[in-house]
Amino acid sequence: MSSQPNPERLVYLDHSATTPVRPEVLAAMLPYFANKFGNASSVHRWGYEARQAINDAREKVASLIEASPNEILFTSGGTESDNLAIRGVAHSRKAKGKHLITSQIEHHAVLHTFEALQKEGFEVTFVPCDKYGLIDPDDIKRAIRKDTILISIMHGQNEVGTIEPIKDIGAIAREHGVLFHTDAVQSAGKVPIDVRDMNIDLLTVSSHKIYGPKGVGALYVRKGVRLVPQITGGAHERRMRAGTENVPGIVGFGEACRLAKADLPEESQRLANLRDKLIQGILDKIPDVVLNGHPTLRLPHNVNVSVKYLEGESILLNLDRMGVAASSGSACTSGSLEPSHVLLAMGLSHETAHGSLRFTLGRSNTEEDIDYVLEVLPPIVEKLRSMSPLGPGSGL
Amino acid sequence: MYNDKVMDHFFNPRNVGEIENPDGVGQVGNPICGDMMRITLKVKDNRIEDIKFRTFGCGAAIATSSMVTELVKGLTLEEALEVSNKHVAEALGGLPPQKLHCSNLAADAVRAAIKDYYERQGIDVDIEVGHDEHGH
Predict the structure, then answer these.
(1) Active-site hit among A272, A332, A344, A390
(2) Which domain holds residue A321?
(3) Residues A117, A90: Cα–Cα separation, whole Å
(4) Number of domains forming the structure of chain A
(5) What are the strands, taking DSSP E only, across chain B?
(6) Is B128 part of a structural domain of the chain?
């Protein structure tokens, strides 16, 4: 992608896409590539060393969500964890029923998995959300049938940042004897999670969203919950997920969880302050902009706005030239002809959804970064609007 | 994703704006699909004397709009009608495959503007504007 040779500043505001590996995490991982290379299944000192490292990491991951270590399964990432939870429960409980409940605003890893299960003969209810992207627990309650076996509702919405009332949904699920899964890929390490207090049976978490390496994640499976494994082979991960463990990745993920938990209260507050400054600044400086997502029940690092009369990709290209990384829910950036299914489910018009911009904050961001974005974004919008046939007077 | 020529036309678009009292106006696409182009032109002695565009859309939509104005400015109307969306993409040195289909409408907008010119002049010419509705 062509860019201005030397932008004044580089500002990465796409932390919901991925994050850099923290130096402490990288340092923890390095010995496990060449020096401590053992297979954790082996009966010798190389093997014990790897097994011990995995056990330590499992404790750290469990601690982040207040689970027991023996309730954590390591996987290749968030997508696999979602697949294992949803397909694993559906296949293990199909004798009890064939009805599943999820929402219209889930990540594709969840949504497309449910769609695949529909083709297998399962019936799925996709509950809607309100204009803030919030799911009403009463809608879940009304959707429950005698043959409902699983509810899957995400914790923090990945595009618009809305935090869903999963504790209430978990309580409803439990009351009806239905298992409850939540995709916590965007919320883990950002907001406190206690799987017992929140009535969660299965929970997905990913390493690379919290400054760990890519290619590793975990599924929390409450003790007593049965799954049908989706990858078969050896006896790894309590026979629930075969394949030689990715030891360096798991070690890095564990360290990332430990650091995330230690930093959580302070870092979340810091990010929320920067988030609010960015939201307010954009709304103050640019006319015809709307905030997407909930004003207060919101992930501390998520900003999502729609810039009316513009298409998102054209803004992203200009921001990139100025050194700023962001993302959009427009059709051009969604890889399809339709804009984001989340924004449409919230009731946004197609044209407003095309103009959505997501900024997701992280550890590297400072007040100066926010000031810089607020300096470069308004002229970009002004320039593109001067080229657009749409506008307040166009009637479109 | 885009080559340097596309980026040049995107960041430094040629002939942006709207001609006052145009001889022809063409508008294709719609904001629901994420792409909309509006072309205004002036015709003198059967040639496109001046042409301007306004576009709502992605990088490819804006770059193809800019390129088509460069390609057809000064051409006779018959010559301009021969310029296709494919020619515009080629003149830009190619577009990403997913953009060829959805954001490459600029030549259609020019044809729509010429068609409008002929209609205003009361000239009966059958012009195929292409996927005007941009439906999918």
Answers:
(1) A332
(2) 11-20+264-387
(3) 8
(4) 2
(5) 24-30, 35-44, 47-56
(6) no
Note the pLDDT tens digit of each residue in A138-147.
Answer: 999 999 999 9
Percent above pLDDT 70 for chain A: 97
Q: Which residues of chain B does A313 touch, with a Cβ-Cβ cutoff of 8 Å?
A: 58-59
Q: Is A252 helix (H, G, I), strand (E, B) or coil?
A: helix
CATH of the domain at A329: 3.90.1150.10
- Please answer yes or no on whether B33 and A331 come within 8 Å at the CB atom: yes
Q: What are phi and psi of B122, to 5 degrees?
A: 75, 20
Question: Does A333 score more than 70 pLDDT?
Answer: no
pLDDT tens, position by position, A232-245: 999 999 999 999 99
Q: How far is the C-alpha of B5 from the C-alpha of B94, rounded, in Å?
A: 9
* Unique residue bearing structure tokens 């997508």: A79
Q: What is the pLDDT of residue B1?
A: 85
DSSP, collapsed to helix, strand or coil, labels residue A77 as coil
Q: Look at the pTM and tell me if it is higher than 0.90.
A: yes
pLDDT lower than 50: segments of chain B = 132-136
Task: Examine the fold and report which residue of A219, A238, A260 is the final residue of a domain before the chain moves on.
Answer: A260
Interatomic CA distance for residues A337 and A246, integer angstroms:
37
A113: three-class secondary structure by DSSP: helix
Residues making up chain B, counted from first to last = 136
